[in-house]
Protein: Regulatory protein, Fis family
Amino acid sequence: MLAKHFVKIYSEREKKTVTSIADHVLKTLLNYDWPGNIRQLENVIARSVLLASGTVLDSVKLPGESKSTMATPQGHIKSMTENERDHILSALGQCNWRVYGQGGAAELLDLNPSTLNSRMKKLGIEKKYFRPEGD
Structure:
């Protein structure tokens, strides 16, 4: 399955220990329509691996979901750091990973661009892994 392939790639690239995908996450991925095809799946897996804290990928945020915990097992409450990371990743995704300038994530989040860059660095969010198609 492509999802497992992407988990392996991004886990190695990000020096994470994610080695498998939880069954409920696999079901969620299989049931999603994927209008953006393989590129969209790859971005969802990459973001999820970045946010993962263990060896099992146990949560994903699919495009269009209002909550990042939609595919998270009940009872799991995300930390403030996880929520901040999700929030920044969501804003970056909406802005096609543009941080600065008009229409950038800093403007969307009402933050100074240098503050956003600092938070991205603190949270381990690197733009180089999320280039839009054609870059």
Notes: Residues 25 and 44 are 12 Å apart (CA to CA). The chain has two domains: 1-61, 77-128. Strands lie at 20-21, 56-57. Confidence is low (pLDDT under 50) at residues 131-135.
